[in-house]
Amino acid sequence: MKKTLAIAALLLSVCVTGWSQAKKPTIMVVPADAFCERNGYVQRVGAMGETVSSPDYSRAMKENADIRTLVSAMADFMAKNDFPIQSLEQELKRLQTEDAEMAMMTGRSGGEIEETPLERLRRNARADIILDLDYEIHRVGPQKQVSFNLQAIDAYSSKIISGNTGVSSAANVPLTSLLEECVLSFKDNFLSGLQHYFDDLFANGREISITFLRYDNCPFYFDDDIEIDGEDYEFGEWVEEWLQDNTVNGRFTTGASSGNRLRYTQVRIPLYSQNRRGRDVAIDADDYVRPLVRELKKQLGVTVGASPRGLGDVWITVGDK
Amino acid sequence: MLRKLCFLAALMLLAGISAGAQEKIPSRKVVTSDYNRNSISMVAVQRGDSFDSEVTSAVKSFSPSQKFDVNNISTKTIRIRKSRDEAVSQSEMDEAVSATPFAREILSSIFNRDSQGMMDDKTVRYRGNYDAKDQDVINARASRVGTDALGDLGHALVKGSYVVLTDIYGIDRSVDRQGNVHYAIRSQAYAYKIGLGENGLSDFYEQCWIYDDDDDATRAAKRRAFQNLAIDMVPVAHATSFLSGSSVEDATESALSSLITALENRIPEWEVAVGIIATKPLRAKIGTKEGLTNGARYRAYSYSEDRSGRLKSVPRGFIRATTISSNTGMSIGATEPSEFYQISGLANIEEGWTIKQSNDAGIGIMPYVRVGGICTVSAGLDLDWLMKTTTHGSMQYLLATIGLDVNSNPYTAVNFGLGYGYALHLTRFFELMPYGILGLDHLGLSDDDISGDDSRFIRSSALMLEPGIRVAANVAYPLQVYAKVCADLLLPLGDIYKRYNESMEYYYNNNHHSGVGIQFGVKWTF
Amino acid sequence: MRKTLLIALTMLVTLSAVSVSAQNKDRRKSFKSWDNYEITTEKVGVDGTKFVKVWGFGKTVDAATMNAKENAVHACIFRGLPGSATAMSTPPICPNPDTMSANEDYFQKFFAAGGPYLAYVSMTTDGVPSGTDKRKVKGGYKVGIYVQVMYDNLKRKLEADGIARKLSSGF
Fold this sequence. Notes:
The complex is a heterotrimer of chains A (about 325), B (about 525) and C (about 170). Chain A is of the alpha+beta class and about 325 residues long.
């Protein structure tokens, strides 16, 4: 039986290679902000005279055995579906060592890189899909009942791919039973949401946002006409043309536009592109805009910088980096 | 119509158990096929007289059938000031019940509430595990939370909690010639069910359940909430019975079991229901846990859907329990079934049909006419009481008979006797029973005074021995027709009998003698 | 005499052939309009399984029970399972409505009497369907049974046979 399965899988994979292989999206389970807030897994940081609280994932993972039960139950079924889940704990450890370096980093023009812990996590762990997990244990007299809310979020577009909410049985049984019951309860619905998302991904590409920001030392405003290849273009118009050529099916939406700021959302980028040596590589928003940045520099002769915010959002600064 | 007749006959002939119900099953209602254990608490009604202590002691020591769990509530008696000559009415009882916090006491008992207001679910879990059927166990194994959650089935049983209030009245004391005292009592029972609605229990948990980490203020608030719980007790059924005994306590003890039996017939939730799992012989997974006894009668039902998809239950014949399994342990998914024998119904009972408890006294009443035997023509009444039934359809009966010679004027010719019969069923429709009766045939003149003179009674009687065979056929259960062929042997016991018999022969050409007779009659079982 | 016998035999053979082809036709017809059954999720099943109560119809109780098993597997593949108070709904393994018609031969074999589908379903009803779970209806019986569907195994089988797509296919 196993042999047959293996042969079938092999055959299938051969078929699939026909239309080239994309990099497998990576998935990570992260406790929801609401969960961290409720359970006191937050760190309060003073910033610009205000106290901002942000989730303390590290403590949540260390101190809460239930969340580890949930994560390992989810890792189990995801591994069975050939999608190993990235370990949040390991990523956190790696991040800690990087934090020191991050603190030292400032923009060349003096601006600090401001990212929320989640954004930082997303960027560093480079998980394509974040599973935002929230659950609550209710006591019903002698019985316990777990309510859960699991959202799969596309780290690029921050869109919810699949939402799963429900409750476990109410029973006086070990909590692990109820937690695992929850996981099994949403498992197939969740997987189906992922499948749907992947289908869309293959058909229409990945969704990102691009924002252009103008620095003071930029010689033109975004609504000015500029000369490129001997022809007069409005800057925005030229960018749109580039996007039309380089998005999947030419799909993107122009958001707010002004002389100082241009924003493009729902920009559908291909899952992979070829690097300079001609190899297929998976790309994120930062990788995607690199040729655009190069093109801009070449055509306009101004300083252009790209700074990623998470995986799916990138700021392109014109006039400075 | 048959039911009505049966009911009427039962009322008139036995005058024992008669019951007025507030909750009768409408004829169109679909009979439910599920049954869960119920819990009861017995409470004695005190009238403030000298009988109170005897009645209370009988009620306190009464242990109901194994099919019930007992909620040990603190109120064992309630007092209603009314003369014991009269029965307590429903409205008087309602008033007394609403003045007592029965619902709170039931919940306290089930959840083992202590003086600090702390509760646990030990009893609930025990009952849940104990009530679990094989299907529940199999279902639990198929589900992720597993068999650990079987105990949680006990929460659903809380709403099957009842209080049964028993009232003894109309006590009649009599003394016989030997100086033995007898008490005849009337008794009645009112059953009330805890009025927990759909969310009753979860509201109770939310308002009154104290958790270990609750602070003092919360604990106090929850204790207050418990004291203010307003859960009604809902009247569901009423039953009466008439019994006697050598003391009021004895009579009350006997009355209590017959009252519970009568209530069982009035409260559908109390009637055990289960599916037939096998035929040849008929088997079903109930037993001592459900209080099943040999000869207990159940009615089979099948289910069908009409064209519009409405569910109907179709009554199909009766069966009697034969071999009773001992199933008082916790279910592990392989409960030993009890066996049954089908006694009526045109169709053979099939696997999967539901059988539902349908209590009867197992007593057959048989008016008859006899030709031959000890006299030319006689009429009378036979009684039989079913003692034991087996899976193969053999039944043992205790028999009683009383007959009257219809042509004996001016003498009164009465015969009566007791006997034993061993019946065989070739099919469920026919019963063949060899039997034997031993009795007396008595001849007397209407102005004879036999009271106080036992010897005169014996001298005017003859010993009667009657071996015979009875054949009965089902017409429409519980109605049967039967015929008996008997050989009566007479042995006169004294001179008066002989003299009267000769005189009857001389004047009326009708003497009593040994001989063969044939008897026809109908039998009604109830 | 011999002639009569021959004619009778021919007629019998023809008739039975007609009835067989009619049966096949019936089956094919019912196969396509196979959607008329009830199924409910009982509880969250043990890992990899779905624990459902499903109804089937047949001339006999056994036939109805078999039909219920077929329905359970059919629901997992094509219809999905509805949720209950404490169990989320389960989407079908093959959500594409054309899967059935595109692979009709495959599913004809899969759901044949005693076919491979039986490996993915096991009845957990204690003994026989009883009480209100066994109903006499016009033309036969309707029964409700508890079953465990080996959903994950079924999914893997259909993925291996190229009927359903793997989650990781394309990567």
